[in-house]
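Sorry to interrupt, but I need a hand with the structure work. Go ahead and set the record down below:
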Amino acid sequence: MTIVWAVVLFGLLIFFHELGHFIVSKLVGVKVLKFSLGFGPRIIGKKIGDTEYLLSAIPLGGYVKPLGEELGEEINEEDKARAFNYQPVWKRLAIVIAGPVFNLVLAFLIFTLFLGLKLPIAIPDLDSITTAVENVMEDSPAMAAGLKRNDIIVAINGSSVGDWNEMAGIFSKNPGKELKVTVKRDDTLIDINITPEPVKVKDETGSEVVVGRIGISKKLNATIIESSSILDAPVKGVEAVYRWCVLTIEVVVKLFTGGVSAKQIGGPILIVDAAAKAAEVGVFTYFNFIAIISINLAILNLLPVPVLDGGHVMFLSIEALRGRPLSEKVLLIANKAGMALLLLLITFVFYNDTIRIIVPWFQKTLNP
């Protein structure tokens, strides 16, 4: 069933994103040559009107191909009126932005449906994600070491941590071992030594293992959005999407400033694993997860990186300001640099996924 949940998730995300590009292209009079779910070799396809609708072999994306989108593409004189690169800037901007906007629409529809069913939507505060300490337990290793409420743990044994799960994992793997913990208290960095207390717990297989605990808890603050009626649900749905967008942007900023560890960035393997776990919990959790991922996809797609939608928005904005487009040579170099950056990011997230999911799975399989 894991594959089924993954296919539904990626299918919805890709379909809504590309549907946005497709619908707006049609509305502004641009000819669409292809609408594909997936990349690579065609599995099945059918041409209806000007557009060939495809299901392709690699399900990690999709694309809409308007006429004249590619650099240097030759366009017949009679087709120029319907070619992407012959449209005014505002039309091209509308087509580009429509993909991320439709991802937000998907999240809005999911949130509104659940709010209409009287199911609340919870948006965690950023402090719930970071390493801010809320409570220090009595007679715990943390209290003995002098850790205090509102301290922020920034490093352990010299290695930075920016995520609660990463930090807790380090303590868990070092029972009985003294660790040097760097703490930010107000505006001052201090070092303290903490020895996690060995505690016996049962792992996912039911086996007893020894882990380290220091006796702290994180902040669990969250904004709860509820709807008073079906008519109120769309308004609250917009609020839920807005608040999740703000949180996502805050996390992205923290990633670039070091406030959240880059080790927590995940890719398709992590998403598949998380989707399967969410589906096991229930329909609400699963579709709530889809909505959150859809919002993340929208925000990340709008980053000003060439080959992403945000990169196209950046180039079109420059064109609008200068009154003419950048040269094809500049655009080609920028797109190659963007693709190289994207490939590095893909490699990095697959590495993270492998370390976090694949390696532990093999260890459990080979050493049951």
Summary: Residues 129-218 form a domain with the Pdz3 Domain fold (CATH 2.30.42.10). The mean pLDDT is 84. The chain is about 50% helix and 20% strand. The chain has two domains: 97-125+226-368, 129-218.
